[in-house]
Amino acid sequence: MKYYFLLQFKRLTRFIKESGLNPYLGLLLGTLLFVALSYILFLKIGYAGYIYPIIALGIINMLGNIQRNDFLKNCFSLNDYKKVRLTENLIAATPFFLFLIFKHEYIIALSFYVGAASLSFFNKINRFNFALPTPFYKHPFEFIVGFRKTYLLLLLSYILTYIAISVDNFNLGVFALIITFLTCINFYTKPEPLFYVWIYSKKPGEFLRSKIKTATIHSILLSFPIMLFLILFNIDKTHFVLIFGILGVLYVITSLLGKYAYYPSDVNLTQGFVIAFCILFPPLLLIVIPYFYSRSKQNLDSTLI
Amino acid sequence: MITTKSIHKSYGNNKVLKNINLSFNKGEITGIVGENGAGKTTLFKCIAGLENYKGEIKYTNGILKNTTGFLYTNPYFLSKITGLEYLQLLCNARNMKVKNIEDKNIFDLPLNQYADTYSTGMKKKLALTAVLLQDNEVFILDEPFNGVDIQSNIVIKEVLEKLKELDKIIILSSHIFSVLTETCDLLHHLKDGEIIKSVKKGKFEIIENEMKQAGIGIRIDKLDLK
Lengths: 305, 226
Hints:
- The structure holds 2 protein chains of 2 kinds.
- Chain A is 75% helix and 0% strand.
- Chain A has 13 helices and no strands.
- By secondary structure, chain A is mainly α.
- In chain A, helix 3 (48-61) runs antiparallel to helix 5, helix 3 (48-61) packs parallel to helix 6 and helix 8 (170-186) packs antiparallel against helix 10.
- Chain B has helices spanning 40-48, 83-93, 120-133, 150-165, 177-183, 204-215; strands at 2-11, 14-24, 28-33, 54-59, 68-71, 138-142, 169-173, 186-191, 194-200.
- In chain B, the strands form 2 sheets. In chain B, strands 5-6-7-3-8-9 form a 6-stranded mixed β-sheet, with helices on both faces.
- The longest helix of chain B is centred in the last third of the chain and has 16 residues, at 150-165.
């Protein structure tokens, strides 16, 4: 069991190294980013004390992936398997727990920790034959896969929009919009196997443009209900909603191009930081999008003729 | 026609393919045999344009990659994608508008289930259906018969015959000699990255015997099984 955790730590440091960063610096930057994002969430959003642990539990729930757990069950005895799962969940929950303590949310922190520990006894149910219908059938695959993996998060953002309108909290509505776009950005963070690019009989530019078109239409489709209701109930803030909408789509496109700019390598920390900087300073998109586009085009040249 | 001229491929110091000179003709089924790790899949990937290589691959009928259907030994499917969506994706990728994809489900696959939940044989059948729907001119089939049930094996053999009739170029690998004997017109023996023998239909047993003799050296005792 000890070797397993050592191996996981090695994998983490290797991932940071491959991103071109010193592992310790990467860990430090990761910690700072986590604290900053948590801090911003509490600063900007009402009910953050409730939303924060829900998001955290959603992230921790990913450890319940059925294939991963089948592998663990194969490796360890039943007792050790349970210990591994519990330990992993508690390790993953600790940063969120500490931040909740820092915010003096003691009861929520404790409940969250118990919740995270309890999640270790359940695995995600994803083996049923029923395939969740999506509106993206004609243009596989990113939004079909992403939608099915994150539909609960998308549902949460729609519920938050409803709450935002009910309690007349525009910022909460914007937060729901941000969640939706962050979810869409996430659809493009994992590079697909080479075969799934090779199959296209398109030139790199043509391929990228068709991907951008699909990403734009589909991300608008997912965010449209939120934007519509925010505008309807906050007509004076229409321009804000539209700006957030346009920026959201641009970030999705940046994420898409970022993936192919370094394809087939995994999306690395440098790209993550570039996108994070773009979020902090949107005018950077004017440089980053053309740069990623041209780099992607060059990069795909050997795969797509 | 596809011709490969002096194909070399290395991973670091490991030379995987050495001076491969082959030609593949229309209306012919060419088999490539070799032990595991001989370089068959790498050769297929080079022909398909999925790997870089030294040397030259010529195709007389346009851009090879845009008209090639490649069936992997173990096809990989993205999670949360149904069989139907996979077929749609591969058709979209070739700008093809296929109506009623379900009607072309020759293997009776459960197309509305997630493809990654399929059994090994079903995955292979789905991947094969996809490359057949693409109207390819060239088919590279890496062990198409492995893991597939008897009925489907028969269907695949018939499909190969049909493709041959339609003047397609078919390259395949298999470890099952009876299948190769039935389907192939030409067989190449790949060993340690080199083509060491090429024989025409009717003489495949020469390669089969060579390979059997090479296998006698397996030393199970080394495992110290108890």
